[in-house]
Automatic annotation (TrEMBL):
<feature type="transmembrane region" description="Helical">
    <location>
        <begin position="7"/>
        <end position="29"/>
    </location>
</feature>
<comment type="similarity">
    <text>Belongs to the glycosyl hydrolase 5 (cellulase A) family.</text>
</comment>
<keyword id="KW-0812">Transmembrane</keyword>
<dbReference type="Pfam" id="PF00150">
    <property type="entry name" value="Cellulase"/>
</dbReference>
<keyword id="KW-1133">Transmembrane helix</keyword>
<dbReference type="InterPro" id="IPR017853">
    <property type="entry name" value="GH"/>
</dbReference>
<dbReference type="InterPro" id="IPR051923">
    <property type="entry name" value="Glycosyl_Hydrolase_39"/>
</dbReference>
<dbReference type="InterPro" id="IPR001547">
    <property type="entry name" value="Glyco_hydro_5"/>
</dbReference>
<feature type="domain" description="Glycoside hydrolase family 5">
    <location>
        <begin position="56"/>
        <end position="296"/>
    </location>
</feature>
<protein>
    <submittedName>
        <fullName>Beta-xylosidase</fullName>
    </submittedName>
</protein>
<keyword id="KW-0326">Glycosidase</keyword>
<keyword id="KW-0378">Hydrolase</keyword>
<keyword id="KW-0472">Membrane</keyword>
Length: 420
C-alpha cells in the first residue's frame, strides 16, 4: 500500500493541474485572446463595403486574413423583431469568409429608423433594441474567431449625430459587450473605432475610459488617418497606451489599427507610387508598434470625383483596375508570410531598418527613409549574399563584405533577403 501512494498522489496532481490549465485557457478565451499570429501577415486585412462572396474571393487572391465590413442594423432589421441575413447576403458573405480560411472583422453599426430618428442611440429603449440586434447577429455568426466591433467612429458627427457622444456610446458598450462574450467565446470585442488619433480625439477617448469601457473591451480600435507620413503615428500610439494604462490595470488590452489608408487626392506628385509606398510603410510601422491587426481602407475606390477625398483610397480604382498599391500589398504579403518582427536597427532617425526572422528562411530586412532625399545606410552584417526586392517584386542579387551591407535608401521601401 505504501508503494502505491506516490503513484496515486501523482495522478491526483496531474488531474488538478489539467483542471487548472483548462480553467486558465477558458478565462483567456473569455477575455478575448482568440487568435494567435504565426507571422505578421496574419494580422493584415481590408475594409470592404460590398456584401458578396465575390469580394471575399478578391481578398483571398490578395492574401489578406481579415475582412472588415459593416453588419448594418437597419438593413438587417427592417421590421420590428424580423432579422434578415439571407436576402441581405450576409449569410453568403460569412460562408465565403470561412470557405477561404479568413476571419471576419464585423462592425455592429449605426442606428435604425425603426427606433431612432438619427444615427445615434440615446434612449435606454433604443439601446435595448440594439442589444437584441447584437444578440441575434452574434448568435448567427458565432464561433468564427472574429472581431466584433461595436459601432464605427462614434466621435464623428456623421456617425453619431448627437452630443456628447462618449456617454451614450459607453452605455452601449456596457450593454452589448457582455452579450457578445456570453454568446461567442471565440470573439474579440473591439471599440470604439475612433476617427483620427491625435490630441483632440484622445481627449474624447479619455472621457470614454472614465466610463469604464476598458473592462468590457478586448481591443481599442482606432483609425489613425493623417496627411503626414505613416511614421508619425508612433508617438500617438504611445500616448494612447499611456492613457489605457492610466485607466486600467489590465495588461491584455490590444490596440487595433481598424481602418487607415491614404487617398490619392492627399498625396504629392506620383500619387499612385506614393500610395503604394505609404501602404507598405504603414503596415511596417504598425508592426513595429506592436499593433496586431492592421486594416487598410479600402479594396476599391468609392467613386471618380477628384474633389472628393473619400473616392480614392482603394487598392483598385472604381473600374476594379489594380493600382500599384495592390501590387505592393500582394508582394508584401507573399514575402513576409511566416516572418516575425524582431527589432528596428539603430540608424539615424530618418532611416528605418526593420529586421524580421523566419526560422526556416533566415533574416529579412525592410529598409527605407522618411526623408525626401535618399539616405546612405550601412547594416553591420557579416559578409554574405542575398536578394534585394522592390515593393513591386523586382529582384536583384547582391553581395557584401565583412564591412557590412551598404545601400542608398529612398521613401520607397526595399527588402533585403539574406541567405543563411
Amino acid at each position: 500500500m505504501q508503494q502505491k501512494r506516490p503513484l496515486k498522489f501523482l495522478l491526483i496532481t496531474l488531474i488538478v493541474l489539467s483542471l487548472l490549465i483548462g480553467i486558465v485557457i477558458y478565462i483567456l478565451v473569455q477575455r478575448g485572446t482568440v487568435y494567435e499570429r504565426i507571422s505578421m501577415t496574419d494580422g493584415l486585412g481590408i475594409n470592404i463595403h460590398e456584401v458578396s462572396a465575390n469580394e471575399i474571393e478578391l481578398l483571398a487572391e490578395l492574401g489578406v486574413t481579415w475582412v472588415r465590413i459593416d453588419l448594418t442594423w437597419e438593413r438587417i432589421e427592417t421590421e420590428p423583431g424580423d432579422y434578415e441575413y439571407s436576402e441581405t447576403n450576409y449569410d453568403e458573405l460569412a460562408e465565403a469568409i470561412e470557405a477561404n480560411g479568413m476571419q471576419p472583422y464585423f462592425i455592429l453599426s449605426y442606428g435604425n429608423p425603426l427606433y431612432s430618428g438619427d444615427q445615434s442611440i440615446e434612449t435606454s429603449a433604443g439601446q435595448d433594441h440594439f442589444a437584441s440586434f447584437v444578440r441575434e447577429t452574434v448568435q448567427r455568426y458565432k464561433g468564427m474567431g472574429g472581431v466584433w466591433e461595436i459601432w464605427n467612429e462614434p466621435n464623428y458627427d456623421e456617425h453619431w449625430l448627437t452630443e456628447p457622444t462618449y456617454e451614450p456610446y459607453a452605455d452601449l458598450v456596457h450593454k452589448a459587450a457582455p452579450i457578445i462574450k456570453d454568446i461567442d467565446p471565440t470573439a474579440t470585442v473591439a471599440g470604439p473605432a475612433m476617427l483620427n488619433l491625435n490630441g483632440d480625439s484622445l481627449v474624447w477617448m479619455e472621457e470614454l475610459f472614465k466610463r469604464d469601457v476598458l473592462e468590457y473591451l478586448d481591443a481599442i480600435s482606432v483609425h489613425p488617418y493623417r496627411h503626414t507620413p505613416p511614421e508619425t503615428v508612433s508617438g500617438d500610439y504611445e500616448m494612447l497606451r499611456e492613457l489605457i494604462d492610466q485607466y486600467t490595470e489590465r495588461e491584455d488590452v490590444e490596440i487595433f489599427s481598424g481602418e487607415w489608408g491614404y487617398s490619392l487626392t492627399s498625396l504629392p506628385d506620383d500619387v499612385n507610387e506614393h500610395q503604394a509606398n505609404y501602404l507598405v510603410r504603414m503596415m511596417l510601422v504598425n508592426e513595429m508598434n506592436d499593433i496586431p491587426i492592421s486594416i487598410w481602407y479600402g479594396l476599391r475606390d468609392n467613386g471618380t470625383d477628384w474633389t472628393n477625398e473619400l473616392h480614392h483610397f482603394g487598392l483598385m480604382d472604381a473600374q476594379s483596375q489594380q493600382k500599384p498599391a495592390y501590387t505592393s500589398f500582394n508582394t508584401f504579403i507573399d514575402l513576409f508570410t511566416d516572418y516575425q518582427y524582431q527589432k528596428r536597427w539603430e540608424t539615424h532617425d530618418e532611416v528605418y531598418a526593420l529586421e524580421f526572422k523566419n526560422p526556416n528562411a533566415g533574416s529579412l530586412y525592410a529598409l527605407w527613409t522618411t526623408s525626401d532625399q535618399t539616405q546612405s545606410l550601412t547594416l553591420p552584417l557579416e559578409a554574405g549574399i542575398g536578394t534585394i526586392m522592390t515593393i513591386s517584386g523586382q529582384e536583384e542579387a547582391v553581395e557584401w563584405t565583412e564591412e557590412g551591407f551598404n545601400l542608398d535608401v529612398s521613401g520607397s521601401p526595399v527588402y533585403l533577403m539574406v541567405e543563411e
